[in-house]
Design goal:
Keywords: CBS domain. Pfam families: CBS. This is CBS domain-containing protein. This protein has 81 residues and is of the alpha+beta class. Helix content is 33%, strand content 16%. It is globular, with a radius of gyration of 15 Å. It starts with 18 loop residues before the first strand and ends with a helix.
């Protein structure tokens, strides 16, 4: 555990993926799923590498857990639309 993040070979070091604060939640989650990311930096505008926030799996799970849906089977659809 004393190694640096880079030496431990964790994280994504090339082709950094980001979303903007105006991106849809659907797009952000789809990016996380297709790219196998546990989090994605949120940037002010496209092509910016200056993050203003981070969206992570825990944020998505919290949203799923606290969003009310009439039918639990539709919960994912409700949040993603």
């Amino acid at each position: 555990m004393g190694r640096s993040v880079a030496k431990a070979a964790v994280g994504k070091w090339q082709e950094l993926r980001t979303v903007t604060k105006d991106s849809s939640l659907r797009d952000a989650v789809e990016l996380m799923v297709t790219e196998g990311l546990s989090s994605v930096p949120v940037v002010e505008r496209p092509n910016s590498l200056k993050p203003t926030d981070v969206l992570c799996k825990a944020d998505v799970v919290r949203l799923l857990a606290t969003t009310k849906s009439e039918q639990p089977t539709n919960l994912y659809s409700t949040i993603m639309t």
